[in-house]
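# nightly structure sweep
# worker-07 picked up a monomer target from the shared queue
# config: single-sequence mode, recycle default, output format = structure tokens
# input follows
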Amino acid sequence: MRSGSRLLIALALVSSILAGAGPAAADTGIGGGSKTPPDPGQKTSGGADDGTLNAGVIVFDRSKNGTGASAGPVISSTSWTPPACWYAPKYSPAQLKAYLEPIWNAESTGSQWDLEQRNKYEKGGEAPDTYKDFNKDKTGKGYWWDSYVNESFPPGWDKCTKPIFWVDKGDPPPADIDNAVTPKILAELAYNEIRVPGTKVTLAPAGTTKVNLPTWAWLDGAAFKPVSVTASVPVLDISATTTAEPVSLKIEPGTTDAQTYPASGVCQINNGRIGEPYAKGKAHDTPPCGVEYLRSSGDGTYPLKATITWKIHWTGSGGAGGDLPDGTFGATQDVTVQEIQAVNR
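# output follows
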């Protein structure tokens, strides 16, 4: 199926959906689910840009994910990105017929292309890679696979252009199909769903600090625990859980007129604790995690940035698993630095 034709199909179906939009109904079919998540921890996904009943074949369980208004997605520490598109079961024989016949009848994709598609999916069966009556005689014994698209449409979303193909239950997809859904693909897609807590650090002194005074920095250890998202394809009975664990906090003072503790600015996480809360009597001690400003911020402030690095790994069906690129998530906060006033006698 040519990519241009697939885009025409998508546009035609979007038009028909907008024209006939009515009350929302639950999706029923392969992958199924409803367009409204069944609960706050679960959601189906799959980029339903073709108007089919199967709004999303992948189910995400986010019940162990990070929450809160300040939570956000991790950014890969490398150039790696999760898949922009992939292949998975989408239609039963009856659903494929219901999907394709209106397109052919609309004659919006050209009579020649429509005829080729009819010969492939409806009137074939003798020639290789052709089928008779949408494989209705195999109902319940396999699925029609098609492409799905990441709903944010990142670069590469339009690269999955293989024609719709049939796979019997228990069989792997054809070897020439890149990005056919596997536990590893699910893990990579779950990476995209990870949300981690915000990174505003507690400072002591709070609000306003002084020049040449060590400022202690720490984060609430209770908030910085591992988070995870599980992605699954129920009809294939495969799943993967992607887990992010905090490993370090990097402090960037927002000015070169400062020194960090430790000198690298990277505070390692020990026993679930990030930095150490300030205690009375330690004003002139060297903090295990913090910053010392060497110049006043004048009438303004310094934008201190705190970034957590999260180590990310996954486990999946059949004992599969491995590491994914580390992710980072950071935020800035304003710090006022004043000169220490002395009284001359």
